[in-house]
Amino acid sequence: MENKGTGYNYGIELTVEKFLSKGYYVLFTSSLLDSKYRGADGILRNTAFNGNYVFNLLAGYERRIGKKTYVTADLKGVWAGGRRFVPIDLEESLEQDMDVRDWSRAYEERYDDCFRTDLRLGVKLN
Length: 126
Fold this sequence. Notes:
Layout: E1 6-21, E2 24-38, E3 44-46, E4 53-64, E5 69-80, E6 84-85, H1 90-96, E7 109-110, E8 114-125
Antiparallel strand pairs: 1-2, 2-3, 2-4, 4-5, 5-8, 6-7
């Protein structure tokens, strides 16, 4: 086995945060990126991790309801570019009765974007 390839990762990140005060906080992070490699065949391709972007938003509220008791609520959202994959060569897979990947098209396509939200409610005893 020989490693004759090269690769690069470029990107920019931004974080904006409002620390907990007056009962609430907010955190926003974002990443824009490009991740490529050139294999021994000389073709420049995406890496498996080249989702191109990720955005995160977290917001929360905390309210005192007793001398040592707080009620909390958090909302978190994530939007990320889909992961890259190597497609299956359907004809060859049917012929061999097993999955055969088409490595000539490695990481050209990607899954759908991922979007997720979470809500957390809680009670904190201090």
